[in-house]
Amino acid sequence: MKLNALLKTLGFLALAATPVVAGPSAPAPKNPIAPAPVNDDLGIIASIGYDSNYVWRGINYGQHWVRAGLNGAIPLVGGAAEDGAGSTALLWDVNYGSLAGDQDHFSPNGLQGVGISNTASFQRLQLGAAISHDFGPAAVSFGYSYIHNMGSLANGSGANQIPFTTGGYGMNDIQQLTLGVNTNLGPINLASSANYDLVNGGWYFDITAKSTIAVTDAISIVPHAGLGYGLNYNAGWTQASRNLYGGGGLFGQSAAQGGISGWTALNVGVDFPIKLNSRATLTPYVAFNLPMGPMKNMAHSATNPYAPFPGVPGGPATAFQSVVYYGVTLSVRF
Predict the structure, then answer these.
(1) Residue 113 near residue 93, CB atoms below 8 Å
(2) Which end of the chain has less neighbouring CB within 10 Å, N or C?
(3) Phi-psi bin for 151: left (phi > 0), alpha (psi -120 to 50), beta?
(4) How do residues 140-154 score in pLDDT, each as one tens digit?
(5) CA–CA gap between residue 18 and residue 78 (Å, rounded)
(6) How many other CB atoms are found less than 10 A from the CB of residue 127?
(7) Alpha-carbon distance 132 to 139, whole Å?
(8) 3-state secondary structure at position 321
(9) pTM of the entire structure?
(10) 277, 319 in Cβ contact below 8 A?
(11) 297 phi and psi, to 5 degrees?
(12) pLDDT reported for residue 12
């Protein structure tokens, strides 16, 4: 009896140890765990947009600005910390914009009698690259950008614009070195930069603050504010253009001065980013630009005399006045 019992026990153990090679499979779990999504982004963002006014560094260049751009980040060194601290990346961007209706704000009434129209064209191409390193508390970047100004406003030429063509008026291209710092103070993101123009001379400093308020998973409100300061700043305008408007000039009181020094403008606004899907975002915005200091003091009336053409109306009032403007951007991440 004991032998039979022992044989039965050994047979049961052998059967239990035999691998199953056929038969129905085990039922699948009711709530299977989905695999982690694969991040297949190339790190490129493409965008197109429209602005009712093109405002750059406190100056209102004109109405109906249409633009397109590409920008991205190429990781160079990965950060050891979970928040990315210690990482280094190459940032790059390409942007192009144009005044759709050639409605510039530097000759709102034209220069009657000398053939200068009040519909000067203007386009701008900007290429930039920077190395950015995340130190944890703040990210620091150093880069270079090339800004190519085009159109009759920049070139000082156009239909019947002989005085501009022969007088050296218009804008030079801009080549600038930029040192930037970005950090977070609680819910507020702060960014500041120092920019030096290698071609035209002069410094431009700015600081911006913004915060993101989530309304839903797809909609946010982003209030922001920025302030600029110029040191011998001229925005790339030629010396002839700086002195064109007489009595204080456009960006200098005399030919011996390279530009203005002082606060340029306060810019405040609200963005309303809307996530259309996982890659596309539509961002309408509204903003207010308030020129300050020397910029505001140099806002000539549209009826003031216009040196070197005394008695000719058409001074650049609107370029230096306060303005409420709006626009929209569609961006897609690849």
Answers:
(1) no
(2) N
(3) left
(4) 999 999 999 998 888
(5) 49
(6) 14
(7) 7
(8) coil
(9) 0.78
(10) no
(11) -65, -25
(12) 43
